[in-house]
Predict the structure of UDP-galactopyranose mutase.
Amino acid sequence: MRKSLLMVGAGLSGAVLARQLAEAGHDVTVLDTRSHVGGNCHTQRDPETGVLVHVYGPHIFHTDDAEVWDYINRFGRIRPYTHRVKTTSGGRVYTLPMNLHSINQFFDAAMPPAEARAFVAAKAVTLPYTPRNFEEQALSMLGHELYEAFFKGYTAKQWGCEPTELPAAILKRLPLRFTYDDNYFFHTYQGMPEDGYTPIIAAMLDHPCISLSLNTQFDRPLAQGFDHVFYSGPLDSWFGQDAGALGYRTLDFARLVHDGDYQGCAVMNYADAEIPYTRVTEHKYFAPWEHHARSVCYRETSRACGPGDIPYYPIRLAKDKALLTDYIARAHCETGVTFVGRLGTYRYLDMDVTIREALDCAALYLESLAHDRPMPAFAVAP
Ligand SMILES: Cc1cc2nc3c(=O)[nH]c(=O)nc-3n(C[C@H](O)[C@H](O)[C@H](O)COP(=O)(O)OP(=O)(O)OC[C@H]3O[C@@H](n4cnc5c(N)ncnc54)[C@H](O)[C@@H]3O)c2cc1C
């Protein structure tokens, strides 16, 4: 039976879900408070330089999921792109992720892989227990010099707290390579949309069964009359943040325009604590097939997210997890709504994971309908 569905949010989660459900024959109304589709993946031309800008921070598409890769390629041309990141520390430039080149540069050496591995292992701090936090994890992998030069200041700036307050698990994900491979990602597929992400997401939403309302803030009464709501807004906002706000980091972007090249690469991190910003993105490097005489860069600073700020990175420390548990319990008591995406589930999700989860969520909804089963509040546990 044809259903009338409401999708809150026209980001990647909302667009993929809307598309899948519209293709299955349902009517989907999509609304977003912003004036554009694409959520945080939104791209637009900078009016002064003509450069395609990743408005809410740099976005590189990378995945091992062949179905997700095929899916995004259905809606626009993805061109080959390999992401490489540099970092400035102590007035010198190194390549990231930490690899044989950065190690040799830092120690002014020319060690082959096995020698470098043994050298770093000798620097590592031996703890009589499993590392309890980020700092201990880093020291037990890298030792003091590399940790202090590359991770300590950057991490404190990014998260607004001491690295000793952060879980060890954050660092376990950062690769340490004993080769000269400086490709930032390990994934099989990597690329950049030729015309940016926004036209791709607009193409997903371009379907006769989808109607789109931009500049429209969702409020609970708007859900009336719909058979089901998929909500990709912040989980705590569904409840009016009545138990408190889940903690996020927000970002400030200072725009700077430059003649020619500003920094010679897409992303330059700044590892030193004394430099207040974390990185500078030079957007024209995301479209190496384009040529621009001028360049636009965004200098990025991280700070605590307050009322009215854009929530970027969920903090998920103990205080937030306790609050999250409370909101999850209450979400399970709701009917007719499923919380999706990075904000609806209070998790950091890469774009490929976002698409995968939206595809699976749409499949779960169709299966629930077919078997007359209730759709759960979460398709993926937050
Ligand atoms: C700085 C940064 C860099 C990133 N870089 C990468 C990268 O390089 N590669 C990668 O794979 N991923 C990256 N990501 C992750 C990527 O941004 C997410 O995977 C993606 O945005 C998730 O899509 P979403 O639809 O779940 O959320 P969003 O993009 O946040 O979309 C949610 C939408 O809901 C709307 N909304 C919220 N509340 C309401 C309401 N009450 N009423 C109406 N509308 C509402 C919002 O306006 C927004 O448009 C990055 C994320 C950040 C923060």
In short: The pocket of flavin-adenine dinucleotide is lined by residues 8-14, 31-34, 39-41, 57-61, 217-218, 232-233, 237, 312-313, 341-343, 349-352, 354 (CB under 6 Å). Residues 4-45+57-79+195-243+316-370 form a domain with the Rossmann fold fold (CATH 3.40.50.720). The mean pLDDT is 96. The longest helix spans residues 351-370.
